Automatic annotation (TrEMBL):
It comes from the Bacteria. InterPro entries: Glyco_trans_1, Glyco_trans_4-like_N, Glycosyltransferase_grp1. This is GT4 family glycosyltransferase. Residues 404-429 are annotated as: Disordered. Residues 51-225 form the Glycosyltransferase subfamily 4-like N-terminal domain. Pfam families: Glyco_transf_4, Glycos_transf_1. Residues 235-368 form the Glycosyl transferase family domain. One of its GO terms (molecular function) is glycosyltransferase activity. Keywords: Transferase.
Length: 429
């Protein structure tokens, strides 16, 4: 979830998060197979410091001399580690006012990405949810893609996008044709990736369905140094918590409906275009706080009876942040959250309805609100920044060593490397 949708201003608390990263992420302690490599990094766009940029930052610290390719770059919008890189943009950078409407330039992005020309590199790493994975590595050079999801509008978001044009049939037909071409292009350019890395089993399945490719799985990092239990824990209060962008697919209306019926208190942190509609639905026990600082979000995680998470996410960072603070989580059993939450520290429910959510809360309370905060914290620590860094760099080292390949990277300027280690297909958990 990006910072602007949760309530913090874009780039908020960058210095705190990166201070933790800088203590452990340096080029000096790279695995031997990665030392001395000429690396190219590719990221869709640099317009804020969100979850994807926190993944990128780890690689920027590990490979500070790498060249970073991106469609557009709003200077000063990301962390110092990213801003200090040698950044190469596309022709879209020169479009007047591009930062206000760049998402509407989707039809132009494949051609713009085609202008990236990579030379004199030994390893290419793309971080992609749109076009970054389409970059063409030089012959014989591995291309590892850390995939947040296949291009959303071309695949699982396709019908929702077309439905938005239901009142304009001619534009709808044109949009369908465009999305058909984008899907073909996205599938074809997936062949340029030598190794896919998915952020969750959910995305691993999606990559298999879209590209007919297998993937490693490495979940993204969660700032468990910042999100932690209160120094002096007190009994949890009686309110349930939502931390979310106020947009339709987050299903905040289902939580409001369930709490209206039961009379339970619900506190909602977040902003978005749905706020007015949701406020009209809310009863007297529902409170909207709007945008809040990360410090305020942490405080609410520490005090709430439980976090409610009714949406379906590719991974779901918010539930893991709540677990890191020792909070119970009641969530829809779909998407990435089904991989991070279980009944030892919360409750999962099967269907995306207010009735199912209400029944889950009723059942959890009737059972005495079972929850092990220490176990929740240990689960969250599996997704900490150091764990993410180790998993990702170890995988890149295996790729660079030619593990499972006919030969390693052609790099005559680098001394011979040690024999490669064996590496499992899945590297999470």
């Amino acid at each position: 979830m990006d910072a602007s949708s949760r309530g913090a201003t874009p780039g908020a608390r960058i210095s705190e998060f990166t201070a933790s990263a800088s203590a452990s992420v340096t080029s000096e302690d790279l695995p031997p197979a990665l030392q001395g490599l000429r690396v190219a990094l590719v990221h869709d766009w640099l317009t804020g410091m969100r979850g994807g940029e926190k993944c990128l930052e780890v690689l920027c610290r590990a490979f500070p001399r790498a060249t970073l390719y991106t469609l557009i770059h709003r200077k000063g919008s990301t962390s110092p580690a990213i801003e200090s890189m040698a950044i190469r943009t596309s022709p879209l950078q020169g479009v007047p006012g591009v930062f206000r409407y760049y998402r509407h330039l989707l039809p132009l992005m494949p051609a713009a990405a085609g202008r990236w020309k990579l030379k004199n590199v030994d390893l290419v790493v793309s971080l992609s949810h749109c076009v970054a994975k389409s970059v063409q590595a030089p012959p014989g050079v591995p291309h590892v893609c850390y995939c947040f999801t296949p291009m959303r509008y071309a695949w699982q978001g396709r019908e929702a996008y077309l439905e938005s044009w239901s009142d304009r049939p001619i534009r709808r037909v044109m949009a369908r044709s465009l999305l058909n071409r984008l899907r073909d292009w996205d599938r074809d350019t997936s062949k340029r990736v030598s190794d896919f890395v998915a952020i969750s089993e959910t995305i691993r399945d999606r990559i298999a369905g879209c590209y007919h490719r297998d993937s490693h799985v490495i979940p993204p990092p969660v700032d468990t140094d910042f999100y932690d239990p209160a120094p002096d824990p007190t009994p949890r209060e009686d309110f349930y918590l939502i931390v979310s962008a106020l947009v339709p697919y987050k299903r905040v209306d289902q939580a409001i409906d369930a709490c209206n019926r039961s009379g339970r208190r619900l506190v909602i942190i977040g902003a978005g275009p749905e706020r007015a509609r949701l406020e009209a639905l809310a009863g007297p026990t529902v409170t909207f706080l709007g945008w809040q600082s990360d410090q305020s979000i942490r405080d609410h995680y520490r005090r709430c009876r439980a976090l409610i998470f009714p949406g379906e996410e590719d991974f779901g960072i918010v539930p893991v942040e709540a677990l890191a603070c020792g909070a119970p989580v009641i969530a829809l059993r779909r998407g990435g959250v089904a991989e991070t939450v279980d009944d030892a520290f919360g409750r999962l429910y099967p269907e995306p309805t207010a009735d199912a959510l209400g029944a889950a809360v009723d059942g959890w309370e009737a059972d005495g609100r079972p929850h092990d905060p220490a176990l929740a914290r240990r689960r969250a620590e599996l997704y900490s920044l150091p764990v993410f860094r180790r998993r990702l760099l170890d995988l890149l080292a295996d790729v660079a060593s030619g593990n499972g390949r006919p030969s390693g990277i052609p790099r005559p300027h680098i001394a011979a490397q040690p024999a490669p280690r064996s590496h499992p297909r899945r590297v999470h958990g």
